[in-house]
Amino acid sequence: MEKSTQECLDNSIFRIKEGISVASKFNAYQIQKVSHYRKFSQIAECRNERTGEILAIKFVKKKFHSQNRREVRILKQLKSLNLPKCYVVNFSDFIKLNDSFTYRGFLYQEFELLDQTLFDYLKKRGDTLKVAELRAIAQQILVALSALKQLGITHTDLKLDNIMLVNHEEQPIKVKLIDFGFACETETLKEKGILHNLAYRAPEITLGLPRDEAIDTWSLGCLLSVLIIMKLLGQPDKKQLDEGTLVSNYFRKVKNGSECSWRFKTLKQYEKKKGAVSRRAHATYDDLTTLDDLFFSQNTNNSTENEDIEAFLDLVKKMLTVDPANRILPDDALKHPFITTEHLDVASDRRYVKKTYLQTHLP
């Protein structure tokens, strides 16, 4: 076992295998199953050999230790944060860090064991979520973003892979925000380069404009859109295009009489600028031109549910406001009718309303 463990933990290999053991100062852990291989780390389901408890252990590559020490520090800050009582939930919206330690040159983080990522769940489900289910997810992540804002922290990597279901069988829509490896103090965002996965990237990042924690709100708007159908983002306004340092990568300036305007580059123009051929992405909704079209292409026969979709669409539009100065704040989003369900007070389908209430008010 000792030899096998040393071989598996070799820096040049960095492949954690089932059956090996690692140890902290007080506990030893036997790896039961490797659940995720990520770019900077591996995550495994482990058994605490002293208590028998099943936990998750994150194994971090040596060259990324400083990044993950920052993650540990942020998670400890979140654990000590007290949110207003009106939110009901507090640290429960973030993954729980139990311990962190080093062993044979690697950094380890011991977490509570969660169920599956939202991405994996959607793959297994094979269908988009219902709008009533989205409310519970939106509410929980908004509370998490509100807490981060209080601490002056921006997650910077909000996506389906970084939201996990706690226990889908017992708590179907209870989720937690995970992976704070790229999180940082909001005041240092200007020093960062390109952030976020492209599908969730706020326009101010793409265009080289000043950024703050509003980039996470944009990402959440994209994520919620993906969960119900797809996202469709609009062109930034002229002021942003004039000021952005990266605008010329995607737009070209066109003269209209005495004035100039910006026009989105064609594929050929973009490829010429970048010197590379682009791969075509999914184009399922090419015939739809607005966010309203996208959402209401799944219109139902239930008038109450359609009212709910309208409220959801209104909130998402506020999250996807191109100018971050006018983008809705997490605290204000938590007071939006879609989250509070006040628009359903006089709805005709009380069965739908009751189901919605139960899904929003999680145990």
From TrEMBL:
Protein kinase domain mapped to chain residues: 29-339
Pfam families: Pkinase
Keyword terms of this UniProt record: ATP-binding, Kinase, Nucleotide-binding, Serine/threonine-protein kinase, Transferase
GO molecular function: ATP binding; protein serine/threonine kinase activity; protein tyrosine kinase activity; SMAD binding; transcription coactivator activity; transcription corepressor activity
GO CC list: cytoplasm; PML body
Record GO biological process: intrinsic apoptotic signaling pathway in response to DNA damage by p53 class mediator; positive regulation of transcription by RNA polymerase II; smoothened signaling pathway
Alphabetized Gene3D superfamilies for the sequence: Phosphorylase Kinase, domain 1, Transferase(Phosphotransferase) domain 1
UniProt cross-references to InterPro entries, sorted A to Z: Kinase-like_dom_sf, Prot_kinase_dom, Ser/Thr_kinase_AS, Ser_Thr_dual-spec_kinase
Protein name (record): Protein kinase domain-containing protein
